[in-house]
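Question (not urgent): is this output format expected?
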Amino acid sequence: MIKINRISGKFLPVLVALMVVLCMVAPSFAEEAAMQASGETQEAAQEEAAQSADGTGNSDEDNSGAAASGEDGSVSSEGNAENDEATGEEAVEESGNAVSAAASNDTTGEAAVSASADSGETKSVKAASNNTIADGTYIPSSYTCVNSSGSDKSTLITCKYVTISENKTKAKIVITSAYYSNITIGETAYSGKNDVDEGTSTFVVPVEINQDYTIKAYSDKMSRLISYTLNITIDENSQTTTADSGDDAISSIISDDDDDDTDDPSGDSGSSGDSGTSGDGDSSGTESGNSGSSDSSSGTTTGGASLVATWADGTYQVLADTNSNMFNITTNSSGEKRVTLVKSGSKLTVTIVLTGTSYDKLYLGTKESAAKASSSKYIKYKESNGYYTYTFNISANQMNTWIDLAAHSTKSGNWFDRQIIFYTSGAKKVSSSATTVPTTKKTTSSTSSSSSSSKSTTVSASANTAAVSNATNLADGTYTADKFSWSGGSGKLSYIKCNKITVKNGRAYATIEFGSTHYDMLKANGTVYYNIGSGNSTFEIPVKLNANNTIIGRTTAMSTPHWVQYTIYIYSAAAAAAGDGGSVVLSGDTIGKTELSEEAPEIIGLEYESTVDIESAKLFKIYKYEGDITLVQVDISSESSLDYGDGEDDSTASDSGDSEYDEEGNEVSKTQNQITAELSQNNVVNYLIAPEDAELPAGIEKECIVITLPVEKAYATNTEITDILTAIGIDEESILIEENAEEPDYSKIVDEEVGLALLDESVIPAKGEKDEDAVEEATEALEQMELRFATLEIPVMICRAEAEADETAQAEWVKVYGAVFGCLDEAVTYFDENDSND
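Got this back:
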């Protein structure tokens, strides 16, 4: 304890002289302090004015969508980073970089070390000053932690103890989440230790005791700083304890833009292991620290470089994510998206594995830069077990930030803007031979299906869902989904609907309602949620907007509880406009059912690419979307007596929540097979043709008949089609010909494993038919046939070439056949070379 008992007489003259000097300089200090206070007051006034103008009451930092609750996915009322006039804390730079500077809380004048970015010196943590409590380690007699909105967070962020040594205080802070990489105090950021198994992030940082003290914790998942105010009481009632060994190695100061920090190890990277090399070393990349393009997204780099610097050289598997359903990383058995990262000195090499095979090369940067770049900068794929892998280098300061990554479509030859993020938290050190390539070889099926209804949606009780990144750029508030769709289930559920979207502290939560009272639990985001509805089963869950989200609900409607898996897609045009991913589609889907679309339909979840030129044909349209996905529209009513009126049907009622009811008032649910059959009963029938590995937005099968490529076997009722198909490269053995279109041999069709039925014009009531009974009879027979095929999960397409006006238009139907067999380019070439007008 510091104590001054008396002052020796011989020092009195010295003290008097010092007092005189202080009196002379005091006015200068006072003037400077007044100026500083005035400046701070002006800053506060400007901040208040900016908030008022914004209309939200949030500062610029608030509007960045600063993050939220604990990582367990439960809803929290955490606020965004607040103004810090009380602590003299300056706003973090827009880029999110925490600027390392001398510790403002060091009242003794001993500032925290802040080495230059190229010094290579380890920067140790200095404790805050204290001159009233004896040295020792203490358990706080009281402790509070609140966020910027005043909500209690003392269970999320705890203070294990405080150590006082030589008048300085350091606290051991534990956050109950493994995804916080650093804490910022004043202008200084401190790294920590992440423990995924324990689900904690631990820090040893300087604190002020017995007063409010503000810290900002950086969430890797949110890429945001979250502000908290601590009050740690150490007094005569505080019990002493013993500090844990290794505390000095937990935290170290992070310097801004320091890619080569040599901070003390955080302890989570394990011992030094074998230096691994990329399994796909032949893929081109760029050197670490130079992303291969000056326009790579800089984003928020707080803590990434410093934390990676603590890792030993070797091979790691790190968590990752992308911003597009069309550019997805494979998941492991735990539902995690992980990639391989090899660290060798300051060089980081990552290998990602995509679920699809639509992209032959990538580029670190935007699509505009990719189109101009040298081919040597392209990242070419390498096939492994049927999957496409891509290997490239990144710099350490690109960890925990979204990186621009352009993807080149094999089929269209176009570049598409994509983004990817690699997280430091949750990294696992593995052997150099470890890989994230799925062990099951990626193969194509022997048949296609019109929907996913053949796949079992009942799962075991141990099945779980992966964590979702529910960060959003939307301002906090309540929103209505512009579109909600879902897939899955057994067909017994009438509907699922999204009642509202709630954004809290930069995270999105959806309130979803089941058309049933029997769902008591729901798995989402790797967590179990419980029914909060007083009527129908209702849940509030974290969701990723404009993307597919997997949920697993437990229904008690049967004799024993069953877990049923669904996929939901919640679209928000505002979120798309704010940069959350997805195209901005303000008018909703424009898939035509009454007439052919004059322009490419906007399909939520898909990105339009191009339109196939149609020269003469009048009864079909073809539009191409990213990921080798094609929409074919066929007009089945023109030039016939078939007429389905305005095309309104109830096939999508299960998405909207507007249920059908029987005469006794019971809700009527439809199977996917029934919905598929009804989709055929429109004047214009829409077919979405997609590769087997394409991830389509949930619920699209309720709007289009889905044909999955490759089609290994097709049933056809027109013998002339064989010659056309063989001319564009389709094996004659892939076609089962039956000339009796009105009476298909369903047993043979099943035995031959047919995946597509191509019916001819004879199944439609002929144009000019005056007998209404005959028209009705032919229409009913067609609908029964379509339902039979739908029950067998075989898509039906009516080929209307014969109804076209001339031979050129008839011949142009080869483009439709090419689309449904996955050889559209060959079909276009064939038509151009064999146009009957030539």
